[in-house]
Specification:
Elements lengths: L11 E5 L5 H10 L22 H14 L22 H11 L8 E3 L7 H7 L4 E5 L3 H10 L9 H6 L5 H21 L4 E4 L1 H5 L4 H10 L6 H20 L20
Organism: marine sediment metagenome
Protein name: Sulfotransferase domain-containing protein
Length: 262
């Protein structure tokens, strides 16, 4: 077992817009062998569980965001990535949490949607980490935000006007596009990352997931199917309601950002 003075192996960092199914991706990676410590469990807004380390979120990430004067929920206002303060010993603090929560050996992960909003800070602490950027259609994210109780940033007209929006929906569209800019920055700056579109998985296409697990050095576990199957059933019902029947054949890995529809 490592002691507090030793560095852990490089982490797997999972991020993306909130409401992009980052928790599903993190859940799969955790099931396939990446240690996550004590993670937030299921709740009304996320019945599968958040798979986000609660101490890192509540004791490191949110206090940092408050300290730099932005929304600790990562909604509005957002950090200015060109003017971020580098916190003291972020690497040591994160690794200390993992060790105190039982890490012994092997891969480990942290999932946090807010990480991409402060990505230079994490990249400074873990310059060679492997990142997973989770993507979802803009329209689907917007609708999920509007339906989710704690996503409240753009309900008020005052906040909408500050981002040039005329409605809550337009406010969330602006917010998604800010995240997309961060993703492009990460890729342009050479962050070691892969893009994952989890909607493929919930439509029965696991090829991208297999490739991602291989890249991470993790092994597929059959329990993933039981974790994803209820989502697959929900996806099928939604497709029938919308009159859409998906092609579940693999179309190759998505390596670049693509424009969203909706």
């Amino acid at each position: 077992m490592l002691d507090m003075k030793e560095s852990l192996p490089l982490p797997i960092l999972i991020t993306g817009c909130a409401r992009s199914m980052t928790s599903v991706v993190a859940g799969v990676i955790n099931m396939c062998g990446a240690f996550g410590g004590k993670m937030s469990g299921p709740n009304h807004n996320n019945q599968k569980g958040m798979f986000e380390n609660a101490r890192i979120r509540n004791e490191i990430v949110k206090p940092y965001l408050r300290h730099i004067g932005v929304d600790p929920m990562g909604q509005y206002p957002l950090p200015d990535v060109d003017n971020l303060m580098i916190p003291v010993d972020l690497k040591g603090k994160v690794e200390r949490v993992m060790l105190e929560e039982g890490y012994e050996t092997g891969p480990w992960m942290y999932k946090g949607a807010k990480m991409c909003l402060m990505w230079p800070v994490w990249h400074y602490a873990f310059p060679n980490a492997k990142w997973i950027i989770v993507r979802r259609r803009t329209g689907d994210i917007i609708q999920s935000c509007i339906k989710t109780g704690f996503m409240r940033a753009f309900i008020r007209e005052e906040a909408q006007k500050k981002v040039g929006a005329a409605s809550e929906e337009e406010g969330w569209k602006w917010w998604v596009h800010q995240h997309e800019k961060r993703f492009v920055e990460m890729i342009t700056e050479g962050v070691n990352c892969k893009i994952v579109w989890p909607h493929r998985m919930v439509q029965g296409d696991y090829q991208q997931l297999y490739e991602t697990l291989d890249w991470l050095g993790l092994e597929w576990q059959s329990e993933v199917l039981n974790f994803v199957d209820p989502l697959l059933d929900h996806s099928r019902k939604k497709e029938k309601q919308n009159g859409v029947f998906s092609n579940r054949q693999s179309r190759g890995r998505q390596n670049t950002l693509r424009p969203d529809i909706g």
